[in-house]
Amino acid sequence: MQVQSYIPKFIHLADVDSTNNYVANLVRKGNIESGTVVSADFQQDGRGQRATKWQSMIAQNALFSIFLKWEKFQATDQFQISMLTALVIAETLERFGLQKIEIKWPNDIYADNQKIAGILIENELNGNMINSSILGIGLNVNQIQFDAELKATSMKLETGQFFVVPFVIQAIASKMTHKLNEFQSENNIYYTIKKEYLNKLKGYQKQVMIFNNLTKESYRIKVVDVSKTGQLLTSNEQNQLERFDIKDIVWM
């Protein structure tokens, strides 16, 4: 994994359809530098994984995208970007005093068993290489009211403190820079990222309940690993190894 070196450039918008879309438009125009961070007070069409919507009250949360230009990065290794981004957010939240931070496969961030952040990564491929990535991040910061079915939380709910949203965004962007530099200096980058990711992975080496969309059954599994391409590797109650893609299971 190699990324072009950069000093983060920040663009702030009051209102936008989505920060990922805004960045993508800049990419098409050739008018964006690697490391640019685009944030917004409100997204009209904030998106999550699997076409879900990201709900957020105006100016209370961190809604932003980071653009990264890569060098010599194989398309088959793109799950590293997902793991790395999730780790950066998890470690930044811990720095701000939050506890019980976990990564729910593949890259949702949970605090005390409630969702606090989501990530949507869009990669631009050139043949078998990744040319660039847009890391879309939604982090609940100061919002304290959520729809009950969302089972969501925020930095303020978890700590009782008010946070300055731009400072939180800058902290994550700075942590991303640090992580990228750290991993570029190592030979076995994938294994370093994966070890840290598994240490924070929700359900790792524990029994959890899932609904299998393929067999239409509910049962307990133990998360044992993730593959290099991002599949979840689990062991069922009969000690049989199973592999799942993101749409295959629902966590109970």
Describe this structure in words.
With about 250 residues, the protein is α+β, with helices and mostly antiparallel strands. It folds into two domains: about 1-200, Bira Bifunctional Protein, Domain 2 (BirA Bifunctional Protein, domain 2, 2-Layer Sandwich); about 205-250, SH3 type barrels. Helices cover about 25% and strands about 35% of the residues. It is built from five helices and 13 strands. It has helices spanning about 20-30, 80-95, 155-160, 165-185, 190-200, and strands at about 1-5, 10-15, 35-45, 60-70, 100-105, 110, 115-125, 130-140, 205-210, 215-225, 230-235, 240-245, 250. Strands 1, 2, 3, 4, 5, 6, 7 and 8 form an eight-stranded mixed sheet that branches. A five-stranded antiparallel sheet has the order 12-11-10-9-13, with no helix packed on it. Strand 5 (about 100-105) and strand 6 form a beta hairpin. The protein is globular and about 55 Å long. The chain starts with a strand and ends with a strand.
